[in-house]
Amino acid sequence: MEIPLIRSKMRLGLLAGLVCSISLAQTQHEPFSLSIRSPEPVKVGSRVYIEVTQKNLSRGSVDCLMIDMEYAIDMSMIYEVKDENGIKMKQREPSVGAFKPCELAAGESLSRRQMLSDIFDFSHPGKYSIQVSRFSSQKPPDNLIKSNVVTLIVLPQ
User: Fold this and answer.
1) 31-155 architecture in CATH?
2) What is the C-alpha to C-alpha distance for residues 142 and 128, in angstroms, rounded to an integer?
3) Cβ-based burial of 33 (10 A; exposed 0-12, middle 13-18, buried ≥19)
4) Up-side HSE of residue 87: CA atoms within 13 Å toward CB?
5) Nearest Cα to 116, choosing from 147, 72, 67?
6) Of 7, 135, 140, 143, which sees the most CB atoms within 10 A?
7) For strand 126-135 and strand 78-82, is the pairing parallel, antiparallel, or unpaired?
8) CA angle, corner 68, sides to 97 and 91, nearest 5?
9) What is the pLDDT of residue 13?
10) Where are the alpha helices (DSSP H) in the chain?
């Protein structure tokens, strides 16, 4: 009787260890976070800006490289804009600009204003959902970190 009890305790111990290792892997912190401040409603034809904040959550420094384009937008980020029907909007591709190295020390944040109307067409009134993503390293597809989703309201003129 003692041997089956010992075996079941060993199995239970192995199972508990496996569950702990899986939960630890899932709770690993991302090196940084991205957040968007919800934009104010705009009228058709107005410029559309969002403010994106990157915060270093790690104990070391993280990359915040900017790819500055001819437009007022950082193309090191991935912008996803959907209309009120959930259809992903097509993005205009700006010409390549300058690379601006940047590093955030542990706990530091950097906020940048991005002009989405330079690469997306907001000429129709409605509600648009916006999310920004960025890879956590220079070697995609390592880990894509996503921001919160905000809603932009475009009003008729």
Assistant:
1) Sandwich (2.60)
2) 28
3) middle
4) 4
5) 72
6) 135
7) antiparallel
8) 90
9) 47
10) 2-26
**Averaged confidence pLDDT in the chain:** 81
Domain spans of the chain, in order of start: 1-28, 31-155
Count CB neighbours of 39 within 10 A.
18
- Nearest-Å Rg of the Cα atoms of the chain is 22
60, containing H or E segment? none
- What is the residue type of 59? R
Q: How far apart are CA 87 and CA 96, in angstroms?
A: 27
**Cβ-Cβ contacts under 8 Å for 24 (sequence gap 6 or more):** none
Tens-place pLDDT, residues 68-78: 765 678 888 99
The larger pLDDT score, comparing residue 95 to residue 53, is at: 53
Q: Does the pLDDT value for residue 24 go beyond 80?
A: no
C-alpha to C-alpha distance for 35 and 148, rounded to whole angstroms: 6
